[in-house]
Amino acid sequence: MTAPLLRLTDVSKSFLGTNALQDISLEVDAGKVLCLLGDNGAGKSTLIKILSGLHKPTSGTIEVNGEPVTFDSPRDAGARGIATVHQFGGTFPLMGVGRCFFVGAEPTKGFGPFKLFDKKLAGEIAVREMQSLGITRVTDGARLVGSLSGGERQALAIARAVYFGANVLILDEPTAALGVKEAAHVLRIIMQARAKGVAVILVTHNVRHAMMVGDHFAVLIRGQKADDFRKGERTREEITDLMAGGEAMADLEAELAELQAGA
Amino acid sequence: MTTSLPKTTAGAEAAVTPPKPSESRLGQLRHRPEAGALIGTLSVFVFFAIFGGEKFLAGAGTASWLNIAAELGIIAIPVGLLMIAGELDVSVGSVLAGSSMTLAIVSGHWGAPMIVGIVLALALGLLIGLLNGILVTRTNVPSLVITLATLFGLSGLTLGLSRVTTGTTSVAIAPDPFSKKVFGQLIGGQFEVAIFWWIAVAVVVTVVLQAMKYGNWIFAIGGDKESARATGIPVAKVKIALYMASGLGAALVGVIQTILYNGAQVANGQAFVFNSIIAVVIGGVLLTGGYGSVVGVLLGTLTFAIVNQGIYYTGWNSDWASLILGILILVAVLMNNTFRRLALSHKPRTAKKA
pTM of the predicted model, to two decimals? Predict the structure, then answer.
């Protein structure tokens, strides 16, 4: 039996005595999508920062391919094949697509100190990789990133991560700032990455989007894992209720009904 | 399409099919943010050519603004690089004065060989740049404040040390013929040799910025520091190197001026603090970082120099030069914003022409 690509066991994180995360255990396999659901402040961001090497867990272990690891920097996480794409794609609006794609890993030509940045090659690869994710509107590597739509920027960031060998792709609210059509496109790209054997961790509070692409789901509430289930084991209402804190939601409903009756 | 093309390219057009038959040259220029800077330079040139008359266009007139542009340009180009990386450097004025005095005291007052004074003067520039860079990257204090502190600190240090060592604030120097030739020659009795230094700096920096990976890092750092750091770029090292380049540029102009005028004064160079920023901003560099080019900075520098000198040839009171520059900065920044917006909205696919 093979170990999961990424496994967290009892990971906790506290800041100045406050528990931001408590005993989180998760697994994600290659070619699967794990959806991490939770309301604002549930601890999603802290978990992402731990996985991407920005924070160290207070306790608990992280394993990549069954091997325990510690990340001292985003670079360490990257070296283990873990890439994080943030909400706005982490891209540079006033740079060309090709330049942006290769920031920090520029292809060069020439010798010694006179190595030149091969912009033509960079542009070609960037355009090719984006097209392989279904972005056909971008044909020029010199095109400024700022002229792309939100979905195209996400695609650029995802294509970049996959090109540089990411096995685990963490997507932080990729659809939150997008319109319906753009969001659909990003979801399609997630499925394409999944088909390439990438393990995707989709962090979102949009239950609908999560249910469309997820294989496995985990719900975080106030730093704890409240539920953990597979595709098809819960209905959308159940998940939404759980995320909103079930009972609290019922109380609110009752209160609102009372107000309505009173009016 | 052919009607909008200049006649000279019509022949070439027929011989080879252009690789991108999307738009005319002029149309493509519209999407380059330097277009605003180019319009600015051409406008002020035409303006002063009309009102300044023949004297402005003659050799002496041309030399007067080219000399100003060369000295300013050597400082403005590295300052522009820093601005592209999202940082400011206002300490250049004191670096210029400090390195001038270093050279004049070491090789003039103490009589050491010229080369020793020149090396020490340039080393001072690098050292102040290193200090600025370390302070900016280690603290979270805005670079404007830090370099303002070094501007004043170094200015005081230069004044104090000059008076302690020489008892005066201006020191004469008699440069040897070789140094004079390399740094302080007047070609044809009019054109400073600094013009060639300026061209050399522009060429080197253009290659670094446009054709090397370091240029990509500089754009990325100015575009979004956090994302840049996440990609593994050594952000702090790049910034420190850029501050050192800016210090070196200012020190080089200090050396050039000292050798050209056979002496140095502690008050030299303070005008370069704002003038360099003006040249860079008119040149279309984004004050908040992430965008800019050497061509833009060159154009901005030329614009500044033409206005600065052209006013003398109009016969008007030179008091008005600053007013023109003030208006020009405002117009340039607004125009650059427009051109940048055009560049961002530029989608090649929609421009269909055959």
Answer: 0.82
